[in-house]
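Write out the 3D structure for:
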Amino acid sequence: MSVTPARRTAYAVLRRVFEHDAYADRALTGEAKRADLDPRERSFAMQLAFGAVQRRGTLDHLIATFAQRPVERLDPPLRAALRLGLFQLAYLDGVAAHAAVTESVELVKPDAPHGAGLVNAVLRRGATEAAGLLAALDDTTPQGAALKHSVPTWLAELWFAERGADEARALLEAINRPAEAALRANTLLTTPAALIAGGVPARLGEEPPESLVLRGPWDVAGSAEWRDGAVFPQSRASQLVARTLAPEPGERVLDLCAAPGGKTTHLGALMENRGEILAVEVHEGRAKALERTSAQAGATIVGVEIADAAAFEADRPFDRVLVDPPCSGLGTLQSRPDLRWRVTPERIAKLAVLQREILAAGARALRPGGTLVYSVCTISKAESDGVLADAAGLGLELEDTRETLPYRDGTDGFHIARLRRVSG
């Protein structure tokens, strides 16, 4: 039996993620290009691959139950085929069970022919028993919630402790749903209405006003709109960051940790390409890409400096500063499916130290009375409230904060704080 290109692509992505530590989004891009998938096939491949990566914890529980052995004892190709097949059987409506079973068996035959019988047996059990096992899972405790919603136990414990059981469960349910596909219209070149009139399959995002939300599959990277710099993939939450800084045309603005450039070019658009933006990026390759992105967007006021944001010293003060430091990304788990398996509590603690250093650098560069925005795409208290607890000691006064949450706002989880420099 032949295997559909979408399933073959998803299987390859799973193997690259779990055997070679590849990032799921990058692996999907490469495999989809190799297979020359059309937009609908690519969309299905992404649904399969991202879903199976996200649900790995729960899927491995099902596999261990049906196979009656620890998942770690199975060969990697078997694990990939079983995760892919069981994800379809357990979580996708409208997928024929026989196709999920037989194509998963066919996928594993070239890589582990001796395991094809096991894959067939486990998936046939899954077709009739998976729903009952999932229904029996209980998320009233952090441990149970971690298994039911497929996250590391420490993450469920953190959200239960910081947000309470009800909000933690709402978050855990939301992070396994497909992410909203949002775009930002580059108002230096076009408008949201003009993009829709020109054929972009989207609706107006309402907030912020330059946002669009795709109605269906669309190859952004392959579009003329992307090549012309008219549109950028960017979540609505991320777009709120530049809006919160609210730079005026003619001002001098500092963007620390600027790559890949979505917020930088948004600042340029809000400033009507008048004034000065200094974009700081520590990695030379990312800095060069940022220069290309700014040129593509027509944001000629952007200048890029290769420097360590934490040690940055300004030659003269800036009117506004954006501090958007590296973070755990726990607000982006819908669109970054493998991230939940990469982040650790130790990593969050190290990031919080770095975030404080970059915030201090931003405060030093800001003129008295100027505005600083601190933003992180996470909902970890250590990286938001914990970092901002040092603000007064840096001469900063907190004016406003905003938090977006996936289950409530339908977009990424962000913590955005606006502060004012009150002392020299």
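The CA atoms of residues 115 and 371 lie 61 Å apart.
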